[in-house]
């Protein structure tokens, strides 16, 4: 069974419809990447999973359970953690306190989990008492993901983790993503830097105008001339693609 | 020197600790609920009147009945939040500010209605100052005030630095949206904020009443210096509010010292203006305050 399944999602903000039928699924142990042009609804699809917008149609299934339109504070408890694109850490709290906040809903002893996160990201262990806002861009992402991992989520959602970072830093972020994935947590990630993202992905989806356009393994999408022209080589974004929408 | 310490520095510290306690509530409400709570001074006044009534009933010392008055004030504050502010939680911030302004007028009128506007006192009698080393004079009530303020501030520090809910308050002050996405119980954080704000406001009011007297405008008069302290320390920064309160209290008192010649540097009638001047200057030069607070 898929960890996460999105079935024919339709919705948006207020009267503005952004999603016009999005299908997706993430299987255990996968990294799945969503790419597409600006305004295609990539981040919106992810926010829909997390209950941040109202879906008028469609279903979100978490390990088979219907969680459609569940508010975020409940979704967290069900086992999905979401790392937003910006302001994804508490800057005035120390690294350790950020991790503790990540475990807010846990009632059991989460100290062993904090130790595991420090093992995963050794630079954080050295700076555990330091305010998270004073860390470097890469280390902030470690805090953001470490904080999300505190709940041992069934799946982790990452919204453009490399946004606004220089190419040198992007590599660092993708290796952090791989580290997190190495612990067995499935990841669904929205990315602008399609080439690098597809390089580490098991599968990818291309969204255009709020609909599925292409779908395939990371490698297949990288080698697809159509996808390459649209998103990878900076070619013209023509709308006359002959390949039909990918079926989930 | 003795005169400077006895009549300027000590009163400055006392006024400063009262401002500081009041400003903590203002800055926490500002940081966590994102609005300037104009009714904070009135909550303070209400706490004082609860204390006064409890003294009439029991004939005990104000500091003994103060905890009960704090509980009553906290209950009123939580009730106000539930009835008036909670329905506006998703509304634009200006609505909450205006609602708090209305609440200020309502609470003050109710106090005047129930307790009338006559001056009252909570002090059992005149106490002679303690004289240390032949020059340092300090009244016992002033020792109690400073001691009480220090204990309460350590309490706030402990809560914010070491407890789960205190850390969650700081987290929500950093980013309410991320707090929600993280699964932090934001309503519980909001309730705790009101509890601390109202409890400390009541204590600050009672300390002021012990130092001076009880009247229905006492909280309102403190609103400006408390906002000054919150802004000086940095909005949303409780430690900043503590420092800001002490700085403004000391600055107000020291501004009336005869630094040059024999006359007071600033006529004492104008010393309230010092808080306003500090607030304006800090907004012009360093809007984020001493502790890098939020800028709205």
Summarize the structure.
The complex is a heterodimer of chains A (248) and B (296). Chain A has helices spanning 42-49, 72-78, 95-102, 111-120, 122-126, 137-149, 167-182, 194-200, 218-223, 225-232, and strands spanning 4-13, 16-26, 31-35, 55-62, 65-66, 80-83, 155-159, 187-190, 203-208, 211-217.
Write up what this structure looks like:
The complex is a heterodimer of chains A (248) and B (296). Chain A has 248 residues and is of the alpha/beta class. Helix content of chain A is 35%, strand content 25%. Chain A is built from ten helices and ten strands. Chain A has helices spanning 42-49, 72-78, 95-102, 111-120, 122-126, 137-149, 167-182, 194-200, 218-223, 225-232, and strands at residues 4-13, 16-26, 31-35, 55-62, 65-66, 80-83, 155-159, 187-190, 203-208, 211-217. Chain A has a six-stranded mixed beta sheet, sandwiched between helices. In chain A, strands 2-1-4-5 form a four-stranded antiparallel beta sheet, covered by helices on one side. The longest helix of chain A has 16 residues, at 167-182. Chain A is globular. Chain A starts with a strand and ends in a 16-residue tail after the last helix. Residues 235-248 of chain A have low confidence and may be disordered. Chain B is mostly helical. Chain B is 72% helix and 2% strand. Chain B has helices at 2-33, 40-58, 62-85, 93-115, 140-162, 164-174, 176-182, 186-211, 218-233, 238-254, 272-285, and strands at residues 130-132, 136-138. In chain B, helix 2 crosses helix 3 and helix 6 crosses helix 8. Chain B is globular, with a radius of gyration of 19 Å. Chains A and B meet through helix 2 and helix 3 of A and helix 6 and helix 7 of B.
